[in-house]
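Example record for the data management plan.
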Amino acid sequence: MGRSFGKQVGHYFGGQFLVQIASFVSFPLFTRLLGPALYGLMGTVNSAVQLVMPFAKCGMSNATERLYAEHRARGEEQAFFVTTRIFSLLWALGLVLALEALLAAFVFLVPHAWVPETSPFRHLARLGMLVGPLVFAKSQLAVMLQVVRARQETLYFNGVTTLETYLSLGLSVGFLFFFKRGLEALFLGQTAASTLVLVAVLVHLTRQMPLDRKLYRRAMVKEALQFGTPLIWNEVSAVIGAFADRFVILALLDERALGIYQVGAGLAFTLLQVTAQPLEYAVGPVVFQRWADGGEAKVRELLEPVARWTLRLMMPMLAGIQAVAEPLIVLMSGDAYRESANILRLNFFASLFWGVTSTIAIAVLIAKRTRLKRNVVWFATGANVALAIVLVPRFGIQGAAYAFVASILASCGYLCLVAYRILPMRIWGLYLLPSIAASVGMYLAVAWIDLRTPVLTLLARVVGGAVVFPVLLLALDGEARRELRPILSKLRARLGR
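Corresponding structural encoding:
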């Protein structure tokens, strides 16, 4: 299982690396094609899509991740797949049609005296009607990809997510250039890509588990909803917590400030996806399968060393982003966005803590305490919005980042405390001091490097950090040396062959 888990983590890291290459291509492309105002508006629409998605999934995505292994162990794999698939399709279709009707009523029936034709809210409503099919396609794809994850088909999962990313980028850019340079063309391209990939995944899964309506089980729907629906509000509040500060900035500042903030916050999330999220994706299915097979002891045997090394390696990630933020922002988005560097530093700091907490506090989901996690995320959301309203007028866009950091750190601390009470693990202690010291040394060694051009400066700092940190860590951390020695011996033996 250890080797299998390592392969799965490698698959997720590889998949996320390929996905983020596309993000690093699209980032400078869209910031330059659209400009700060339209780029900020695009982020607002994407926020709205992310806000609706949890309702469109109706908890089926989270329920599939947690319950699939249990039903497979009882020989009910196909019935569970058929049940969640039929329910999810019908639910999402009805929800999207209802939202389309509401937005159409706003666009066509609300008098212009109340909401002028030039109002950004009318523009947002029209874009909302356009992205309705995108919400349907993405929600259904998310649920089916959770089935793929639960079956631990990691190569297929990462192949599909990579394909959707590149197809979406290609069609969006193509539509922008050949049809219309506006957000409408961009979202049409995304919708076409997600729909094509959705059809492909549906065909793949139904070949293995045909959709036999006779296998539909109401009891399974009830079980899935009982587990998953509390996490709807968890996802919603997470989205609000992540994006509410954008709406505060738009209300208290202007569209340009929103665009500047969106660049830093968006890049922080992109970096999170290639650092902490691959581990989170791999841990969930394996931990839930181990819990079904062997209980607490089997879970601790895997999770404790994984969590210790995750915390150990989190330190250089935090120090590294502090060192490379400015040249990375200027390289990706241009000098006009230089102010986004501090937003990147602050938001990545908080986002990485949240991503790591999702892995080491997975005991909360093992115990099915979904309402507790929902309440914690709601607290973070409320604290983030309240603090942003207070801090943005005083500190500008950095005030929104301060609010995000404070709310996330408080939530992470509480979740880790609860998870420790459910599943005690030896993951905190003085063993982290060598990693902290090596990270500080790495930062001091590379932060001063300035080769006048962003690309050379960034490259020099990244390469320097990649050399300095492991040397310092191995020099200072005896435990790390002992744990890595068998791995290095196996690697030398393989290379010797």
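Summary line stored alongside the record: The chain is about 85% helix and 0% strand.
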